[in-house]
Amino acid sequence: MEWVKSSFKRVFGMKKVFFVCVFFFVATFIGCSPEKKDVTLSPDNGLPFFFFPNDQAAQDSVEANLAYGTYFTVHPQGRYKISFDANPTQSAPFLQLHRISFNEEGTRYTSRRVRNLEATEINGRWEYSFICEESDIAIWATTLLGEHDVYYSGRVDHFSFEGEGPYSNSFNLNLIITGSFEGTADGLDEEDLATELLASLRKAYQGILIDTIFIRYAEYHPVVGHLFPKDEPWLAGTSSENVMLDELGGFGTGDTYNALDLVLVHRIDKSTGILGYSSIFSANLGGGIGSTIVLGSHMKITSTEESWLNADEIIGTAVHEIGHFFGLRHTTTTNADFTALGDYSSYEDGIEDTDWCSSVLAYASAKKKSVLSTDIYVRRPLAPKIYTEEAASYNLDNCPDASNIMFPFVTEVPIEGFTEGQLQIISKNLSLIPH
């Protein structure tokens, strides 16, 4: 979803724009209901919050803003359902969906209504189902039209956004080597690293087929290759302003184009203590903004020191970041996540079969001036973040979710893998993304 956040960064300038990862479809999705009203209520609040499909976490901020404007992305032929608890004191509102378009300079946006849906009440919930008929990825936004043709004033509780698409459960990978690469700390070159990476991903992502991993070198990119000399270490966030290097996305044609792009740099120089960067539900396997995950072969410790990573550390980071890419949050929300995502309502991922750790939140509350960096990348200025060793005093090894791939910190606890609930979210979100 980097391309979404980039657009909103351009549009809103200094305004704060926040970017906030299972459902089995028993009934067949229906098309949009007949439009009953001609009144259009466009988003009027700056669209401060984003939501993405099949996310189980608390959605307090989305619920509070759903009537006035929240935004999301849709994919061709995706089948979606928005639902929330029926309010017996209110008539069911009309859900209006609007396509968001930007002017050429990215300084303003306009909205055009594309759906006006009546609610269907099922088991005490109002449900709105629709099928996306767009030809490409698009940004849509919500409003709720209540009685007397004004914004709905009732409460929105237990919001849910579910989605499933027609695309396959398989994908390819590009490992893009950027700048000089000295191998891993334990002596693996790029060929060996790619082999080990593919085996580990296939083991972790049960029920999903990862076909092939291709090795590409940034200096050979046909358009921007000259910007990536092979004889110098690439520092993401310093060597170029674009820490995600999404200009390298979609490197190749055919099977190598509709692939997930893993960009391997010397280190991520934006923050200390960061091994990799991704965005929650990036939702793009077609190249360009939102199609990249950035991994470092080294980790920045201080302004002058770094740690050389071994293959297991790089691979473990890749497995974790790909989880974010396909819509998984951290099992426990960190203080840095709160800052980056702009939503303080979700303390954990909400998935029934994952645990969460109160020690992480206790640390965040006690050390407000020492904020651990998050690996969830948001394309906007973030508050300064400082990595400290004091987190160790909370013994994060004892966290019940420390063995889960999506635990936010590196510990000494062996990783056991994804839960069934996490894998179901990944599978459904993969099915939505054209590839």
Q: What do you see in this structure?
A:
The chain has 435 residues and is of the alpha/beta class. It folds into two domains: 2-164, no CATH class; 170-432, Collagenase (Catalytic Domain) (3-Layer(aba) Sandwich). 17% of the residues lie in helices and 21% in strands. The protein has seven helices and 17 strands. The chain has a five-stranded mixed sheet with strand order 10-9-12-15-14, with helices on one face. A four-stranded antiparallel sheet has the order 1-7-3-4. Strand 3 (94-102) and strand 4 form a beta hairpin. The chain starts with a helix and ends with a helix. The relative contact order is 0.16. Residues 1-35, 367-371 and 379-393 have low confidence and may be disordered.
Classify the oligomer: single chain
- CATH top level of the largest domain? Alpha Beta
Given the helix and strand composition, which structural class is it? alpha/beta
Tell the overall outline. globular
By DSSP, the count of extended strands is: 17
Spatial ordering of strands, largest sheet: 10-9-12-15-14
Low-confidence parts: 1-35, 367-371, 379-393
Name of the CATH homologous superfamily of the largest domain: Collagenase (Catalytic Domain)
Strand content: 15-25%
Q: End-to-end span in angstroms?
A: 15 Å
If helices are DSSP runs of H or I spanning 4 or more residues, what is the number of helices?
Answer: 7
Largest sheet: 5 strands, mixed
Classify the fold: give the CATH topology of the largest domain: Collagenase (Catalytic Domain)
